[in-house]
Amino acid sequence: MSAVFSAKIAQQLLEFTPKAIGFPLAKLPFSFKAKAISQLLGLLLAEQAADDELGFLTDKWVAIQVEDLNLAFEVSFNGKWQVRELTDAQVAFSANSAELILVAAAKEDPDTLFFQRKLSIEGDTELGLEVKNLLLSIEFASMPTPIRLSIAKLAAVIERLQIEAKPTVILAKSPSY
């Protein structure tokens, strides 16, 4: 298979897959998505909740927008996770799913993505930094095994596709006269 053909397929997979996932996701009732998000946050941040490290989220709302999945919601923590549709968050994070998966797998740094304009953070800067630091405090190895393995495999596929999608430069030899 030619390098150009392979790069085009990789690029199409990176673009099409989130759309293919986003379509049925959009059909689910928000209450179902909210319950799943709340449960996932409860699993991922159980240690931080037990250590009372989530107090800064009391009566504060953080918006998360996964742009390529057309998924948007707000979260808060008042002793338990609350999830609602977008209304009026103090800070908003937005990125595509691939970047968020790479951050979750500790394969990409959120600051790097921010400066590359692949991650947007708008609103209350102090709250945004606290949320970013909270997320960075999650030890990848301590995540529940099914979640950790799923994220690791998705990240590996994304990294491979990103490598394959990069255009290959072919240098032709100059004719010698």
TrEMBL record:
<dbReference type="InterPro" id="IPR036527">
    <property type="entry name" value="SCP2_sterol-bd_dom_sf"/>
</dbReference>
<dbReference type="GO" id="GO:0006744">
    <property type="term" value="P:ubiquinone biosynthetic process"/>
</dbReference>
<feature type="domain" description="SCP2">
    <location>
        <begin position="43"/>
        <end position="135"/>
    </location>
</feature>
<protein>
    <recommendedName>
        <fullName>Ubiquinone biosynthesis accessory factor UbiT</fullName>
    </recommendedName>
</protein>
<dbReference type="InterPro" id="IPR003033">
    <property type="entry name" value="SCP2_sterol-bd_dom"/>
</dbReference>
<comment type="similarity">
    <text>Belongs to the UbiT family.</text>
</comment>
<dbReference type="Pfam" id="PF02036">
    <property type="entry name" value="SCP2"/>
</dbReference>
<comment type="pathway">
    <text>Cofactor biosynthesis; ubiquinone biosynthesis.</text>
</comment>
<dbReference type="InterPro" id="IPR016830">
    <property type="entry name" value="UbiT"/>
</dbReference>
<keyword id="KW-0831">Ubiquinone biosynthesis</keyword>
<comment type="function">
    <text>Required for O(2)-independent ubiquinone (coenzyme Q) biosynthesis. Likely functions as an accessory factor.</text>
</comment>
